[in-house]
Specification:
- The structure is a single chain.
- This protein has a domain of 27 residues.
- It is built from 1 helix and no strands.
- The longest helix has 67 residues.
- The radius of gyration is 30 Å and the shape is rod-shaped.
- Keywords: Membrane, Transmembrane, Transmembrane helix.
Length: 71
C-alpha cells in the first residue's frame, strides 16, 4: 500500500526525469545540428578541392593540346 509521501515522491521523480529527458533531447538536437552543419561544410570543401584539381588538370591538358596544334 502506497502512502501519500510515496505518491508525491514518485510524481516528483517522474517530473524530474521528464525535464532531464527534455534537456538531453535539446542537447542531442544541438549536437546533431552541429554535426550536420560541419559535415555539410566538410563535404562541400572536399567537392571544391576535387573540382579545383579536375579544373587545373583539364586546363593543363588543354594547354598541351593548344601547344601541339600551334606547333
Amino acid at each position: 500500500m502506497a502512502t501519500y509521501g510515496d505518491i508525491v515522491f514518485k510524481s516528483k521523480l517522474e517530473q524530474f526525469s521528464n525535464i532531464n529527458s527534455v534537456v538531453n533531447g535539446k542537447k542531442q538536437f544541438r549536437v546533431g545540428l552541429w554535426q550536420s552543419v560541419l559535415g555539410s561544410f566538410i563535404f562541400a570543401l572536399i567537392l571544391l578541392i576535387f573540382g579545383l584539381i579536375i579544373n587545373f588538370t583539364k586546363e593543363g591538358g588543354l594547354k598541351e593540346v593548344l601547344r601541339s596544334l600551334l606547333d
